[in-house]
Amino acid sequence: MKKIIIIFCLMLLFLTGCQKEETEYENYHVQNQLRDKYIKSGSQTTGILKWSLTTNSNINSAPAINNNSIFFVYTNGVIYGLNSATGGKIWQNIKQLPSKVDEASVEIDKNTLYIAGTNGTLYALNISNGNILWEYPTNHKILSTPVFTKHYVIFSSADGNLYFVSTKHGTLYHKIQHNIPLQGSPTIYQGKIYVGGLDGKIYAYSLENKTQVWNYKTKGLILSKPIANNDKVFVGSTDNTFYCLNAKTGSLLWSKKLQGIIKSTPVLSKNAVYIADGKGFIYAFDMAGNLLWKNKTNGAILSSPAFVDDTLYVTSGDGFIYAIKASTGTLIWKYGVGTSIYSSPVINSGIVYFGAENGKFYAIR
Predict the structure, then answer these.
(1) Most buried in the list 19, 122, 319, 354, measured by CB within 10 Å?
(2) Number of neighbouring beta carbons within 10 Å of residue 30
(3) What is the CATH number assigned to the segment(s) 39-62+270-365?
(4) Residues 191-205 pLDDT 10s
(5) How far apart (Å, rounded) are the C-alpha atoms in residues 169 and 233?
(6) Per-residue model confidence as pLDDT tens digits over 146-159
(7) DSSP for residue 183
């Protein structure tokens, strides 16, 4: 009898552990949405070049920072790990993936680098040397940037699936068969995962049981990553409209028609939401949808702005990065690189980092 009780307790412990691993999606930090773990307050930037590095291919994806190191990849799949203060290489040899990388940004979780290739494969790399730890293939290109729970990396693919893959082993735990090509990046918020499709719909799925909770149809494609806060979901569409939806029900709270298509990810501050469009406009709305201010660059904005210290940083196809006072919309400074910039910036302790079409990676203080 005693032996049976011991076996029963061990089975119960095993089943409890498995259930915990599969359903425990705690720690829904803002970093799962805005990549804010790479944006840190510091001294005010002045728009002066600190250092730059010349590569032999253009850079469309955004970098990621870990401690004193910054990592980025350019389109031919070559990865750099640099000292963020000096630009010096921290890896002895340049690492190259067996795939090109277009818009998918570098992500870091638990000292592992994650990079998605246009060959449809997600790569997990050792952050200390750039060696590939594992890779997971899908059936189409990946242009999205992943998000993380405690045990899984979640990403979308143009094959129409939303994947949940073990961060430890690179094995598939689950996939939501969406059946519509997915190009935008997913977002996690309050037990749900939000993602947009090329059918123009924004979808909300339950993280616990992977079932669809709601969807909302726009009149264009959704390439923008949705952002959620205070029970609201903000997302843009190629129908030139910026939407604010109820995060629980998917009902429309308000929408605003902009000048151009929206591919950029919205940015939130305490009292405002910022969005940019393909005509080069930057907008600030309050949470009720009232326009606070509007500014204009001379090129398409396809990258996502970054916000810190009441400053909004925006890169543009006109070849400039703009530092704008977020509360008023006035220009603080701008820096030109002579070529289009589609890499979203990150800001760390008073330095702005981004890549450009000319193959250069910049650090601006």
Answers:
(1) 354
(2) 15
(3) 2.40.128.630
(4) 999 999 999 999 999
(5) 32
(6) 999 989 999 999 99
(7) -
